[in-house]
Design goal:
Blueprint: H1 2-23, H2 29-47, E1 50-51, H3 52-59, H4 63-75, E2 79-84, E3 94-98, E4 104-110, E5 114-121, E6 126-133, H5 141-161, E7 168-173, E8 176-178, E9 183-187, E10 192-195, H6 197-204, E11 211-216, H7 217-225, E12 236-241, E13 245-251, E14 254-255, H8 287-290, H9 292-299, H10 314-326, H11 330-354, E15 358-363, H12 364-367, H13 369-383, E16 393-396, H14 403-418
Length: 434
């Protein structure tokens, strides 16, 4: 079962750990049951539909245990049984598969120029997407949350039309986030400091009964790039660029948020001590030389250049830069080349420290990737001590400016895979004949 082992080995380990601690009184049977339910559900997502007998063989559990687990998952609406297994020896078993309509998760994002939402079902299929352009820097935190709540209410209405509600919602924001408290410690580009974002959201949403979490947008963008079961994506760094620059770390297939969730603030690595003042108040941060604002300053030809127009959103500005590059505009190509070299310089620092298998350029950096890739790779090779850049490769995200909300939705629905008991169990009742 090589195609599924990378995704479920950790869950198997948790099951074994649960049994071990049970023996010493540290965990109860409910904990082990939840771990086993998670193990089966994740195996079906990552390894595909199979019979109960095949699941038992793949997971190393006895058939009676797997049969009981599948029955409970079915009663919770998370799996369904369908056709007979093909190619089976003897009596064919019934195929078990994930039921997409069994649970839904909602992702949301607050960024400098927009708020957005995305709802997905248990298979990751998108059932609702909403986005509104808004200059969040010109608003108080309370006003920004009002804009996001408007979108969230529309998304919740979309789910209500399907006869359901979310199990969890995860909100990404461009700043330092204390994940345990849902507090935004610092969001330099938003002008926020010490904002209780989770508290504001809960109050404005009427204290919802589903899980509600807040996380850093770049960490969530990293989750969106870490494809489950893909060995090439088990150790990656994601550099996510919009107005500011953030990052995310995925180690051995799992996001690494750091002690309090502050890991990945790559944009504030010091690279140019004599350079420009950053939005955070310090001088020479990486963000000042690779952020979109700096690229626009380099590429724009005068104050009246359309790239400086407040009427164009970020996506339109990046599209215009790409159009000029494709037309061979020398000023634009020179600007892209300079930014690419700075990206490579910082990427080399990160590679010397962490040696990831891949560095993914996300957000606007992914959108301009074809114009800067050569410079990035050249600086990476020159700046990394290990031969062949330590085996680190550069990849371009295909998610554009929506990477963070993609990741937020993925984290929201993954809570169900972590703990399937979040979804209520519905046991069919038998009618009593009088």
């Amino acid at each position: 079962m090589t195609e599924v082992t990378s995704g479920i080995e950790d869950a198997m380990s948790q099951v074994r750990d649960g049994w071990s601690t049970t023996a010493t009184g540290g965990a109860d049977q409910g904990t082990v049951r939840r771990a086993n339910l998670s193990l089966v559900l994740r195996s079906l997502r990552e390894g595909g539909a199979r019979s109960r007998a095949r699941l038992a063989a793949d997971l190393g559990l006895n058939k009676a245990t797997v049969s009981s687990l599948v029955t409970e998952l079915r009663e919770r609406g998370l799996v369904r049984e369908g056709s007979a297994e093909r190619g089976a020896v003897g009596r064919p078993g019934t195929i078990v598969e994930v039921d997409g309509a069994g649970a839904y998760g909602v992702g949301a994002e607050i960024n400098v120029n927009h708020v957005s939402t995305r709802a997905v079902d248990l298979t990751g299929a998108v059932v609702s997407e909403r986005r509104t352009s808004v200059d969040t820097r010109g608003l108080e935190p309370d006003e920004v949350v009002d804009r996001l709540v408007e979108l969230l209410q529309g998304t919740l209405a979309d789910l209500a039309a399907l006869g359901t509600a979310p199990v969890s919602a995860v909100v990404g924001v461009a700043g330092l986030v204390d994940r345990d408290r849902g507090n935004v410690a610092v969001a330099a580009n938003l002008g926020w400091q010490g904002v209780d974002l989770a508290g504001l959201l809960r109050a404005k949403l009427g204290d919802p009964d589903y899980l509600l979490e807040v996380d850093n947008e770049a960490n969530l963008a990293a989750v969106a790039e870490a494809t489950p079961g893909d060995p090439e994506r088990r150790d990656i760094l994601v550099i996510h660029g919009e107005v500011g620059i953030g990052g995310g770390i995925v180690a051995d297939g799992r996001p690494f948020p750091g002690r309090r969730g502050y890991a990945g603030e790559f944009g504030h690595i010091l690279v140019d001590p004599g350079g420009a003042v950053c939005g955070c108040g310090r001088t020479g941060c990486w963000e000042t030389v690779i952020g979109l604002s700096h690229l626009i300053d380099l590429a724009a030809d005068g104050d009246d250049d359309p790239l400086r127009s407040p009427l164009l959103d970020l996506e339109a500005k990046v599209e215009e830069i790409s159009r000029r590059a494709a037309a061979g505009d020398e000023r634009t190509l020179a600007a892209l080349s300079e930014v690419g070299r700075w990206i490579g310089t910082g990427a080399a620092v990160l590679t010397n420290v962490l040696n990831p298998g891949m560095i993914v350029l996300s957000g606007y950096l992914g959108e301009i990737g074809e114009w800067i890739r050569d410079e990035v790779e050249a600086e990476l090779a020159a700046g990394v001590l290990a031969p062949d850049a330590g085996g680190t490769r550069i990849a371009l995200s295909a998610l554009g400016f929506s990477a963070a909300v993609h990741g937020a939705a993925a984290v929201a629905i993954d809570h169900v895979y972590d703990d399937p008991t979040l979804v209520p169990r519905v046991v069919p009742t038998l009618e009593v004949m009088s």
